[in-house]
Write a structure and sequence with these properties.
Blueprint (H helix, E strand, L loop, with lengths): L3 E6 L3 H10 L5 E7 L3 H11 L3 E3 L2 H5 L6 E4 L6 H10 L3 E4 L7 H14 L3 E3 L7 H11 L6 E9 L19 H17 L4 E8 L5 E9 L5 E7 L7 E6 L2 E6 L8 E6 L4 E6 L7 H14 L9 H18 L5
Parallel strand pairs: 1-2, 1-4, 2-3, 4-5, 5-6, 7-10
Antiparallel strand pairs: 7-11, 8-9, 9-10, 11-12, 12-13, 13-14
Bound molecules: NADP nicotinamide-adenine-dinucleotide phosphate (NAP).
């Protein structure tokens, strides 16, 4: 099997988790990392046994022994770093949200196409076992026609105004950081909404700390979605159909314990438990490896068009809710 040689650009919390997941992927090797801080790069490389550590991103882009770069920087850096890597011929797996706007995403996709390099948004949730099973059940019409998606993600982050989650200059705020998960579920099952309503509330650093959304589809289906940094919420999703409903316990993460399937009489048909392998980030990395070995330039589950529509939905939600960035 051809070994896929990985690099990571941006060495925060998620980069560490991804490196742990990647270590379990057959035929994958983390060979280089880059940070804006040389010290952070050295420390990360020592912790994860990475041969090369760079204190600037261009060095990683120019490393000939790197096939694919995982861009794990704050949202505001996804666009410039992905472009830099692709312009040097690297395949790119870029963290969510893919960028700050549809305009940026379109430029990134156009660059991938022009350079003929692989490009995918790191929507790891789409590769987790619960998501695959959910989509199978929906396709098999286990709950009839999907009529409504209810989903939420809420937690209270530590108050660190300089770090990316609450820092507007770095693309902070609940919608882009965690609201993207309920939206990606709705978009996966129902496509982009025909109409939407959204309302946000803002915290002391100026970022949205709550966003409530109502999506309408021409079919008559709806989605009721929310995200917040203002309270601790149950991380759950329910998909309602004409003949029952599916309830996901902890849908977005690698440790989803179960998916409950109810029939039209609200009786439990099956509680499906999932066997977990690794921390969950291994699944998306494995998918990228399969794509690269097969010569694909995009992933069938997280296609360029899916990411384009996801970003378009985020842009429309921001507009409706009055969430602005400079
Ligand atoms: N898929 C997921 O489950 C998931 C989860 C969390 C986040 N994400 C996404 O991944 C991206 C990065 O998120 P993150 O949670 O990893 O962010 P983070 O921990 O706040 O790190 C963000 C950046 O801050 C810098 N940094 C790291 N440690 C630092 C420190 N102690 N002091 C100052 N700066 C430091 C690093 O930049 P340098 O490398 O340049 O030094 C790093 O790239 C975001 O776009 C986010 O949406 C995805």
């Amino acid at each position: 099997m051809q070994t896929i040689r990985w690099g990571i650009a941006g060495l925060g919390k998620i980069a560490g988790k991804f490196a742990e997941g990647l270590a379990l992927v057959p035929g994958a090797k983390l060979v280089a990392v880059a940070s804006s801080s040389g010290e952070r790069a050295q420390a990360f490389a020592a912790q994860h046994q990475v041969p090369r550590a760079y204190d600037h991103f261009a060095a990683l882009a120019q490393d000939p022994a790197v096939d694919v770069v995982y861009v794990a920087a704050p949202h505001s850096d996804h666009h410039p770093l992905s472009l830099l890597m692709m312009q040097h011929g690297k395949a790119v797996l870029c963290e969510k949200p893919l960028a700050m706007s549809l305009t940026q995403v379109s430029e990134m996709i156009a660059t991938a196409e022009a350079r003929q390099v692989y490009f995918m948004e790191a929507l790891w949730t789409k590769f987790l076992p619960q998501f695959t099973r959910l989509q199978q059940l929906v396709q098999q019409q286990a709950i009839g026609q999907v009529r409504s998606v209810h989903a939420q993600f809420a937690f209270v982050p530590p108050f660190l105004p300089e770090r990316r989650v609450l820092n507007k200059a770095l693309g902070g705020g609940a919608l882009l950081d965690i609201g993207i998960y309920p939206i990606l579920l709705a978009n996966s099952l129902l496509g982009p909404p025909d109409q939407l309503l959204a309302q946000a509330q803002f915290g002391p650093t100026g970022v949205d700390e709550q966003c409530n959304m109502l999506f309408h589809y021409a079919s008559g289906a709806t989605a009721v979605l929310s995200c917040a940094f203002a309270y601790t919420g149950a991380v759950e999703a329910t998909i309602y159909g004409t003949e029952g409903y599916l309830h996901l316990h902890h849908p977005w993460h690698g440790l989803c314990p179960a998916l409950s399937w109810y029939n039209g009489q609200r009786e439990l048909v099956e509680k499906i438990h999932f066997a977990h392998h690794g921390n969950g980030y291994n699944h998306e990395a494995e998918a990228v490896g399969h794509d690269l070995r097969a010569g694909r330039l995009q992933n069938p589950m997280v296609s360029h068009e899916f990411s384009r529509q996801l970003m378009a939905t985020l842009d429309r939600t921001r507009l409706a809710a009055g969430i602005h960035y400079d």
